[in-house]
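4.2 Preliminary Data

To establish feasibility before requesting continued support, the project team ran the inverse folding procedure on a target of 185 residues. The structure was first converted into the token representation described in Section 3, and no sequence information of any kind was made available to the design step. The complete token record follows.
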């Protein structure tokens, strides 16, 4: 990321993945990639999945894929925990087991907008990723505990949460038409 070669590598990886998947005997139902992480849905069984992994790893000697399979119907992908149920997919926030819950301390010598930004970012992630109301409430509890341990006042966190909930319940206005006029000398 940030390298001048990033675009070239991304274009190559898209070409490489497309070619490798097209040549595969059995294909994934879904193939999603973000930078160097892929999320696939596979309907053909574990033996065929291992065969597919060998296939894409043999496509180029310089590219090696590794695989993490779901455990107890759950699979972390980036900072999302994807849970498979009988009828649907549910998502929530994923944290690595080594997480400490340490954020910028409220008493640090940083501008208040930075500290509010930390709270808002955590709340936005919770509201954006938590699929169920119970999952959201659990996540909000974790956020409140983490921030309290980092000396954020309960009032500050509750105010930010109230603003976030209020934003969700605002009526959406229809988009206004936009007219773009190019500059011509």
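Position-by-position output of the design step:
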């Amino acid at each position: 990321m940030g390298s001048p070669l990033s675009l070239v590598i991304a274009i190559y990886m898209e070409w490489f993945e497309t070619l490798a998947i097209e040549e595969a005997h059995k294909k994934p139902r879904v193939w999603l990639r973000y930078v160097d992480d892929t999320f696939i849905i596979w309907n053909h069984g574990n033996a065929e999945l291992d065969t597919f992994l060998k296939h894409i790893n043999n496509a180029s000697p310089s590219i090696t894929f590794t695989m993490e399979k779901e455990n107890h119907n759950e699979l972390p992908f980036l900072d999302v925990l994807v849970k498979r149920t009988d009828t649907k997919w549910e998502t929530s926030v994923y944290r690595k087991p080594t997480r400490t819950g340490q954020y910028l301390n409220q008493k640090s010598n940083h501008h208040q907008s930075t500290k509010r930004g930390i709270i808002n970012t955590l709340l936005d992630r919770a509201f954006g990723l938590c699929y169920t109301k119970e999952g959201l409430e659990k996540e909000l509890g974790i956020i409140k505990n983490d921030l309290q341990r980092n000396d954020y006042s309960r009032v500050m966190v509750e105010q930010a949460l109230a603003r976030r909930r209020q934003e969700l319940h605002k009526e959406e206005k229809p988009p206004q038409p936009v007219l773009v006029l190019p500059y011509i000398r």
